[in-house]
C-alpha cells in the first residue's frame, strides 16, 4: 500500500495529527473538558462548510471557526473553584449556533450530501501535500505553545486556587490552551472527520488517565495509542475496506475498556 502517494500522505498526516491529539487530549481530560473537544470538532465542521461555500480550503474555515469558539469558551469567567460556572451552557449555545450556520452554508454551496459526508467523516486518503504542510504547521505551533505553557497549565489544572495565589494567570492560560485545543480539533477532523475527531482526541487520553500514570508517562502513552489507532485504522481500512474513522472509534472504546479491566484486576 505504500506504493501509492495518497497512502504515504495519509500515514504521515495521521502521525502528525496523532502526536498533537495525544498531547492536547491528555490535558483536556485532565481539565475535564471532554465536552469542549466534542463541541470544537463539530464547530469546525461549520467553518469548513463556510470555507467551501466561499471557495477556500475546508481546513482554513475549520481553523477559523474552531479558534473563535475556543476563545469564547476559554475566556469565560471562572467560578469559585477555578472552573467556569456556566461552561457547559456556553459550549452548548456556541455549538447550536455553529451547527445552524453549517447547515445554511451547506445549503448555499449546493453540495449538501457529498460535502457533508466528507466533512463529517473525514477524508484521510485525500490529504495532499498542501494539506500535509498545513497540518505540520498547526502541530508545530500547538506543541510549541504547550511546551511554553506546560508547567503553568499543569499547575492550573491540578490546583487552580493555589495557582492563582502563586500568580499564575489562570484565565490567560485557559484562553491560550482552548485556542490550542481548537487547532488540534481542526487537525484531527482531517483524519477522523468532525464527528469522530473526538475519539482520537479523547480515547487515548482517557485510557492513559484511567491507568493513573504521571504526566510524562501519560502523555507518552496517549500519543502512542493515538498513533496506533490512526495507523491501525489505515491498515485495517486497506484490508477490509471499512472506513478509517470506524476503526479509530472502535479502537478508542476498546483501549479504554481494557484499561478499565486492568485497573480492576490490579485492585483485587
From TrEMBL:
Keywords: Membrane, Transmembrane, Transmembrane helix, Transport. This is Metal ABC transporter permease. InterPro entries: ABC_BtuC-like (IPR037294), ABC_TroCD (IPR001626). One of its GO terms (biological process) is transmembrane transport. The chain crosses the membrane at residues 6-28, 59-77, 89-106, 136-155, 175-201, 213-238, 244-262. It holds the Pfam family ABC-3. Belongs to the ABC-3 integral membrane protein family.
Amino acid at each position: 500500500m505504500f506504493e501509492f502517494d495518497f497512502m504515504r500522505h495519509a500515514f504521515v498526516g495521521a502521525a502528525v495529527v496523532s502526536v498533537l491529539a495525544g498531547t492536547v487530549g491528555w490535558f483536556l481530560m485532565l481539565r475535564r473538558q471532554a465536552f469542549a473537544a466534542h463541541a470544537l470538532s463539530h464547530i469546525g465542521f461549520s467553518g469548513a462548510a463556510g470555507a467551501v461555500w466561499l471557495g477556500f480550503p475546508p481546513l482554513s474555515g475549520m481553523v477559523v471557526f474552531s479558534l473563535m469558539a475556543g476563545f469564547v469558551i476559554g475566556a469565560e469567567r471562572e467560578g469559585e473553584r477555578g472552573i467556569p460556572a456556566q461552561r457547559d451552557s456556553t459550549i452548548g449555545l456556541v455549538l447550536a449556533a455553529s451547527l445552524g450556520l453549517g447547515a445554511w452554508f451547506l445549503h448555499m454551496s449546493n453540495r449538501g450530501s457529498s460535502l457533508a459526508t466528507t466533512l463529517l467523516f473525514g477524508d484521510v486518503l485525500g490529504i495532499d501535500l498542501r494539506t500535509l504542510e498545513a497540518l505540520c504547521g498547526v502541530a508545530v505551533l500547538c506543541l510549541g505553545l504547550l511546551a511554553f505553557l506546560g508547567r503553568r497549565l499543569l499547575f492550573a489544572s491540578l490546583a487552580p486556587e493555589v495557582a492563582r495565589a502563586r500568580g499564575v494567570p489562570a484565565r490567560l492560560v485557559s484562553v491560550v490552551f482552548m485556542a490550542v485545543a481548537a487547532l488540534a480539533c481542526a487537525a484531527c477532523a482531517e483524519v477522523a472527520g468532525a464527528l469522530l475527531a473526538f475519539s482520537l482526541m479523547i480515547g487515548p487520553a482517557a485510557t492513559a488517565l484511567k491507568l493513573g500514570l504521571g504526566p510524562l508517562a501519560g502523555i507518552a502513552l496517549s500519543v502512542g495509542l493515538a498513533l496506533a489507532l490512526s495507523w491501525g485504522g489505515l491498515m485495517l481500512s486497506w484490508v477490509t475496506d471499512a472506513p478509517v474513522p470506524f476503526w479509530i472509534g472502535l479502537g478508542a472504546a476498546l483501549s479504554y475498556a481494557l484499561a478499565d479491566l486492568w485497573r480492576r484486576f490490579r485492585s483485587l
